[in-house]
């Protein structure tokens, strides 16, 4: 089995791409079994060892809504931070920001919706009133010297409303950037986007400045959509080790773009990532064993060794 792709440098692509790793947060948040905090800490450490320089580590959302991440404080207090690695966390509101500041977090993310229905289901807010929640969070974070990223979900389509108007996405995204967010991640939460749609949306923002992309692979379009974004000049791509994850408030959403699949494509195109593919595959194989199920990543399936089995009864608990 091949362990590295044959590299052919393609014209019109960035020389280097930052892979914004979301596995510990967006990847694990929808797992039905509670993953022990020591496993999460090892997961983050393995990702840093594989070359990741941005690892979204956890979220300070209320445990009632995402029980999997109820151990955020314990994880941040106990894990080892590697110099040069960024460890952003998701915060939903001012209380979440308070907790992040207590733990010395240097970078946060907020999570917005591009559609009315999803804003109500995910945030219990209207499309307009969601900004009342974000404004004080972003303002206070900036006052404390934190870097702020904004996610916008349902940028390409919403299972309740259908295709999301491009102008509506741009309006939401620009308001978040105007608040002071340094980066805006455009999320295809249910994986319905196509390359032409991706190019049109990025173009409607006036170009790739401060934009990142976050694709789910529900319809098998994540890599194609990523390539379209790269051709438009985007240089930050969200991905989840092993392709784990989904959205707990959108049942049709399948896993995130797998980091290994992304890295295989990027390395084949001659785009630098700073990531070691073998180490990523080893990490996903280890994680699959901890979760007790095979990795969804096609590269992990091709390069990994043997089926996933829980290592001991202590690794995953109710």
From TrEMBL:
CDD domains referenced in this protein's UniProt entry, alphabetically: DRE_TIM_HMGL
Pfam families named in the record: HMGL-like
Region (Disordered): 297-318
InterPro entries given in the database record: Aldolase_TIM, HMGL, PYR_CT
Presence of keyword Iron: no
Position of the signal peptide: none
Ranges where the Pyruvate carboxyltransferase domain occurs: 17-281
PANTHER family assigned to the protein according to its UniProt record, in alphabetical order: HYDROXYMETHYLGLUTARYL-COA LYASE (PTHR42738:SF7)
Family: Belongs to the HMG-CoA lyase family.
UniProt name for this protein: Hydroxymethylglutaryl-CoA lyase
